[in-house]
Amino acid sequence: MKNCFDPAFLKKCHSKELSEALGGGFLFDSDNFTFLPGFCDVHVHFREPGFSYKETIKTGSLAAAHGGFTDVCTMPNLDPVPDSAENLKAQLDIIARDAVIGVHPYGAITEREQGQRLSDMAAMAENAVAFSDDGKGVQSGEMMEAAMTEAKRLGKIVAAHCEVNGLLNGGYIHDGEYSRAHGHRGICSESEWKQIERDIWLAKKTGCKYHVCHISTAESVGLIRRAKAEGVDITCETGPHYLVMDESNLREDGRFKMNPPLRSKRDREALLEGLCDGTIDMIATDHAPHSAEEKSRGLEKSAFGIVGLETAFPVIYSKLVRTGIITLERAIELMCINPRERFGLPLGESFSVWRLGESFKVDPSEFLSLGRATPFEGEELFGRCLVTVYNGREVFLDEKRFI
Asked: Whole-angstrom Cα distance, residue 59 to residue 238?
């Protein structure tokens, strides 16, 4: 992989790809603009096929380009579920037609994500970036062991949404101070970390490459840290919102409802510690768009999920880099280098150009995603993406910023 900060690479991008992308019409002063490698998000929901009123491959990939992402991995909670080569092809055909960046689909772990029978993993292995039943935890340990054994044989990653259904008790936000003070049903932390604990044991037993999706609890960080020390082939991700928000930020509004939920201050601090010491390998948005109506029903009845592709880097840059918690180089490791290395997605000559010193107020009406629900609405953030180039082709250009 190219060094993302290699001057020769950036000079080549500046003099050739960027010049061609802009038709030779703009001059760039390297003191005013920052070149960054194309980000990679291993956890997004583009909703097509099956739920295109929420998002499409086209709108989702445009939103990704707007946020500086040039490769994303799409989760399989679709209709049809990609649990066979035939069903996966339905998604691949749309990607080939409409995607403006690299879109790499997951195959499902189980048929229809129902947890009863394994999907046809072997038939999908060539075209699936990894396997996941995201949105649902695989409840049966025997089923997960069988999936890990097959994934090991195929040389693929199992990426797990970890959630014990029997511990949910109808909850929809974190079981903490806010839920108790406002009369909401809570989701306990154990519902997440208990299944991670099980899966670590299975990954150790099978030798499978195991990736934990969107961790949110202090216990999850501790379990993964110990598993790494023991040599388990494990990586994990968390989302920008879990790193910079907690239950104290909750409002009676569906744009604050996601799964897993915003947890306690203690959990957020543990996630930041894991980010800094290398326990957490990557940042992924879990971009999960819904219609305005589905997100207008308050915390209890709104659909789970928020959008994140168009705010991810500005959030990380504003709240973690500018504040000195992590360096810009570490942010690039988390959002580009590590996810690409783990999931085998080369950078190529893909990059974005930013004006990092420019602040803006988050306005969902400016999103290219069909989804508008973000807990960062109205916040002042730094870092505006001006151009995104995917393999030498301009896929996003903010023309008004060059006036």
From this structure: 24
Query: The tokens 């583009």 sit on which residue?
Result: 46
Q: What's the pLDDT band for 30 if we cut at 50, 70, 90?
A: low
Residue with tokens 């209890």, as numbered in its chain: 300
Structural domains in the chain (count):
1
The yes-or-no answer on residue 286 being catalytic is: yes
Q: How many CA atoms lie within 13 A of 42 on its CB side?
A: 33
Handedness of CA 128, 130, 132, 135 (dihedral sign): negative
In this predicted structure, the answer to whether residue 359 has a pLDDT above a threshold of 50 is yes
Rounded Cα distance, 272 and 238, in Å: 10
Task: Confirm whether 143 is domain-assigned.
Answer: yes
In sequence order, the 6+-apart residues with CB closer than 8 A to the CB of 375 are 241, 245, 249, 255, 256, 262, 306
Contact 51, 21 (CB under 8 A): no
User: Can you name the residues that pair with 74 across neighbouring β-strands?
Assistant: 44, 105
Cα(119)–Cα(98) distance, rounded to whole angstroms? 26
Is 1 inside a domain boundary?
A: no
Kindly state whether residue 75 falls inside one of the protein's structural domains: yes
Q: What's the order of all strands across the beta sheet hosting 69-74? A: 39-44, 69-74, 102-105
Read off the CATH number of the domain in which 174 is found. Answer: 3.20.20.140
CA distance 309 to 326: 20
pLDDT band at 356; cut points 50, 70, 90: very high
Round to whole Å and give the CA distance between 333 and 13: 20
- Active-site hit among 253, 286, 363, 398: 286
The answer to pTM > 0.85 is yes
Q: Is residue 68 in some structural domain?
A: yes
- Cis bond upstream, residue 260 (ω within 30): yes
What residues make up the domain containing 196? 7-402
DSSP β-ladder status, 234-238 and 282-283: parallel
How many Cα atoms are found within 13 Å in the side-chain-facing hemisphere of 387? Answer: 25
